[in-house]
Amino acid sequence: MSGLIVCATQRSGSTLLCELLKATGVAGVPNEYFQHFKDSGIADQPRQYLAGVSDPSVLGLLPPLDPGVPETSFDFEAVRRAGTTPNGVFAAKIMWSHTPDLWVRLGERSLEDVFGPLRYVQVVRRDKVAQAVSLWTAIQTQAWRSGDSPVAEPVYSFAAIKHLTEWLAAGERGWTEWLRGRSPDVVVYEDFARDPGPTIEILAGVKAPPSPLLRQSGSRSSAWAARFASEAA
Asked: Which residues cross the membrane (predicted)?
């Protein structure tokens, strides 16, 4: 079985896919091994998602950037070990926003040069506004999964959701273009969440285990999406 690279944008449903793949025990361990930025050594910070937004009502809801400590080296072999299940299958998840630093780390090499034969899986979400609402909520609360304790009460922002809708769409387009000619499997969140079984069986070759995650969206997400649509119109 080839290794798996899950290509995604934030809040696209990739976490559900990857947790189910991990739970099979035979499809690698597709975590985000490349999420720390070279110039800070820190994973995504709230303000990085809103880069280019100058609206003080948005920026006032976000903590300042932590400069961190620049990365001096990157251990691909450690990634290979962490991402490989006992049957020898490697898997990783990559967000489009993390690819610029990843390409620099790779240099003249390709992902296949480092990890061997790979199968690519692109996760997309049709409803970009719902995706952006989910991301804007998580950015503020830092509750990325069900069970995480929120650090703040989220505040609606048309400007933030508009920016994130466009940013996520650009990221999806970026993956689509990069994957052209690589024959990726495309997983549509809205379909996959309704019935993940067939996708897991295709990718892992085994029956899908029970979902380890609870759905996070609720009435607030729906209300914000409806409000955004009304204001955008």
From this structure: none
